UniProtKB/TrEMBL annotation:
It holds the Pfam family Hexapep. It comes from marine sediment metagenome. Gene3D superfamilies: Hexapeptide repeat proteins. PANTHER family: ACETYLTRANSFERASE. SUPFAM superfamilies: Trimeric LpxA-like enzymes. This is N-acetyltransferase. The lineage of its organism: unclassified sequences, metagenomes, ecological metagenomes.
């Protein structure tokens, strides 16, 4: 993880996670193992990113969102508050 990443002290990141430069991860979020988050993303408060999730560049995820294993979120996507992704395998837009 680059020193250009902001990880709030109350957030938790498992091992083997890739986070791109300029990304900010806010309060109580959990980034699980083998996940990849691109550059310049904003991960809101209380977000759960499941194991193996891939998130592109310039993605904004609002508060209380859950993204589970198997989901890919492409570049430049905005996800509003309290959204849950379970079996959408390739997110192009929302």
């Amino acid at each position: 993880m680059s020193n250009q990443v902001f990880l709030h002290e109350s957030s938790y990141m498992d091992k083997n996670v890739e986070i791109g430069e300029g990304t900010k991860i806010w309060h109580f979020s959990h980034i699980q193992k083998d996940s990849k988050i691109g550059q310049n993303c904003i991960i809101g408060q209380n977000v759960n990113i499941g194991p193996g999730v891939v998130i592109g560049n310039n993605v904004k995820i609002q508060n209380n969102v859950s993204v589970y294993t198997g989901v890919t979120i492409e570049d430049d996507v905005f996800i509003g508050p309290s959204v849950v992704f379970t079996n959408v395998l390739k997110m192009m837009f929302l």
